[in-house]
Design a protein that fits this description.
Blueprint: H1 2-23, H2 33-46, H3 50-65, H4 70-80, H5 85-97, H6 101-110, H7 114-122, H8 128-143, H9 150-163, E1 170-173, H10 180-189, H11 198-205, E2 210-216, E3 226-233, H12 241-244, E4 258-266, H13 277-291, E5 297-300, E6 302-303, H14 307-313, H15 324-328, H16 339-358, H17 370-377, E7 381-386, H18 393-399, E8 403-407, H19 413-423, H20 430-443
Parallel strand pairs: 4-5
Antiparallel strand pairs: 1-2, 2-3, 3-4, 6-8, 7-8
Length: 453
């Protein structure tokens, strides 16, 4: 109700301002759409009237949605809406002459790009937050071909980090009674294991041993930001197919001792890089502990999306000539039905997977796998590498069928996080490190020591 009232109030203010806006006779021809839009943005920044400002903001966002030359609009934002250089130079001079808190504050505000205030004022329009999230999604697409737009993206990220602060997010459980409009979005946004239809969705959220939770924001009431799917199990699983099987036998919640986070999906492209997942997992753990006090183990069953590409392209992958044909055969799914071939592959791929997680690094020193960076950065431990964990077409293409378990040991999370963040240490179980010794046996290379976990 408060959100609806506030939305209606903004709409009323905007409608009253439209009369004033019409008096300005803004051009609506398509020839100079981007320039017209930029002129309206300048007017929005210089205006003082509340009704007119809300109306102009709504008009800008409305026209942006129909704008074809968005590249020109973004280029103008980057070029013409940065800091006021004259004010900035003056503030720098004042700071140098008297470096104190007052001149530091003046310098801070003088260095702020005018885009930030523009985005704040656009956010006053009805539906402004959602429109700006969509605008950033467009910007990210444009940035693939034009890296000079990066300063605009930094401004968006700065604002969204505040607007989508954890304190504003609301955790909601998704079940079969959730409005259909939200359930449709869950189906559409699932990014790890495709939800094929409504029956498939129901199998994931309706049985007593299944849970789904999502974060929402008050300004995007029916739009999930991120959601996680959870399976309650008696032990740690090593493959995804049994968890998603149509004919599986449900586990009674009172018998479950393990909560398995098997799918985490970000929903809004325009919020890429804004952290939600670490908060989501930790809060869901607390929810489950309150509901099921006997729950002991919290793990993921995670994909390894970069492993197959690393095997094919990485110069540091320790693959000798004799093993190359076998590794290349991962592309042919027929091996999954040939036990002897599968066993030969397992002996080679498991040590390579251990190398991938424990030793392989990007040029900037980061762990190669993006999912690993996420969970290890949250304080999880690499618990198990699961051979033939995902034999779907996607799983074979991206990871050669490998999946992993990351363990969230509540007593060790902070220590693990600090070790990974500060020293780059990958906390791994003894079972994973034993696989790395297999690398030495197969490929004849030394195996280094790693942090115990």
């Amino acid at each position: 109700m408060p959100n609806a009232f506030f939305s209606d109030l903004l709409s009323s203010i905007a409608e009253r301002g439209r009369g004033l806006l019409r008096q300005k006779n803004w051009p609506s021809d398509s020839a100079g759409q981007a320039n017209n839009l930029i002129d309206m943005c300048r007017a929005l920044l210089t205006g003082r009237g509340e009704a007119t400002g809300v109306a102009i903001a709504a008009e800008v966002l409305g026209r942006y949605r129909t704008l074809e030359a968005r590249r020109g609009f973004f280029s103008a934002l980057e070029r013409d809406f940065g800091p006021d250089h004259e004010k900035l130079e003056k503030a720098i001079g004042n700071w140098k002459a008297a470096p104190d808190d007052r001149t530091a504050a003046d310098l801070h505000y003088a260095s702020e790009p005018r885009r930030l205030e523009l985005f704040r004022r656009l956010n006053r329009a009805p539906g402004g937050t959602a429109a700006l999230v969509d605008m950033r999604a467009d910007l990210l697409s444009e940035m693939r071909a034009n890296k000079t737009l990066a300063p605009i993206d930094k401004d968006f990220t700065h604002l969204f980090a505040s607007w989508f602060n954890r304190g504003f997010l609301v955790l909601r459980r998704i079940d079969w009674s959730t409005p259909a409009s939200i359930l449709e979005r869950i189906i559409r946004y699932e990014a790890v294991h495709e939800i094929h239809d409504w029956d498939d969705l129901r199998r994931r959220i309706d049985p007593p041993d299944r849970r789904c939770y999502a974060f929402f924001h008050p300004a995007l009431t029916d739009e999930p930001l991120i959601f996680v799917e959870v399976a309650l199990a008696e032990q740690i699983p090593g493959a995804i197919a049994p968890l998603l099987a149509h004919d599986r036998a449900p586990v009674a919640p009172e018998r479950a001792r393990t909560a398995v986070f098997y799918s985490i999906s970000n929903c809004q492209k325009g919020l890429a890089g804004v952290t939600f997942g670490n908060f989501l997992i930790k809060q869901v753990v607390e929810e489950l502990r309150r509901e099921l006090p006997r729950m002991e183990t919290f793990v993921t069953l995670s994909p390894v999306p970069g492993f197959r590409a690393w095997l094919a392209n990485a110069e540091d992958a320790p693959i000798d000539r004799e093993a190359l044909p076998l590794v290349a055969s991962l592309d042919d799914p027929s091996w999954t039905s040939e036990p002897e071939q599968a066993e030969r592959l397992r002996k080679i791929v498991e040590p390579l997977a251990a190398h991938y997680f424990l030793k392989a690094r990007l040029p900037d020193g980061r762990v190669v796998d993006p999912v690993a960076r996420f969970h290890l950065g949250n304080g999880a431990r690499l618990e198990r590498i699961n051979w033939m964990g995902d034999l779907s077409r996607k799983g074979l293409k991206e990871s050669g069928g490998v999946m992993v378990n990351y363990l969230y040991d509540l007593d060790e999370i902070e220590k693990n996080h600090e070790a990974f963040a500060n020293q780059g240490e990958v906390m791994a179980s003894s079972a994973v490190k034993r696989m790395l010794k297999g690398e030495r046996q197969i490929f004849g290379i030394p195996a280094p020591s790693f942090a115990q976990g």
